[in-house]
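User: Fold this; tokens only.

Assistant: Input:
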Amino acid sequence: MVLKVYMTSFEIRTFGPMKYFRLRRIIEEEVRFSSLKKGLVTIHVKGATPGLLVFDEERVQVFDSFLKKLVPITGYRHGNAYEHLRSSIMSTTHTLFFDSNGLILPPRYDVFLVETRPVHNHRRVLHLIIRGT
């Protein structure tokens, strides 16, 4: 069996703070384009303040409220420390399984890019490393 690797990048324009952008459809399209039938896909968003979240789409607001209470905006010496802390909790990299049907996740789950910064039309670059057979 030969393990194949397919790498690609794409860009999303974001606004924030704490806005959630769905990625599952984009990731699954790239997996299909790779022609691989099963394996792993690693998703990475470039930067020190964005986050990636794999979560139930109906419970994202619950997570958002919790994160905002856990890491408030004020009270830090570094002006945007809260952005870095929120990003660290979510991570900027996730690896997921896929098969010929798409990502192996519960039906209501999605992969979200989370923009933690108060920006408008901000360019976020995401990298996918798809490997499998």
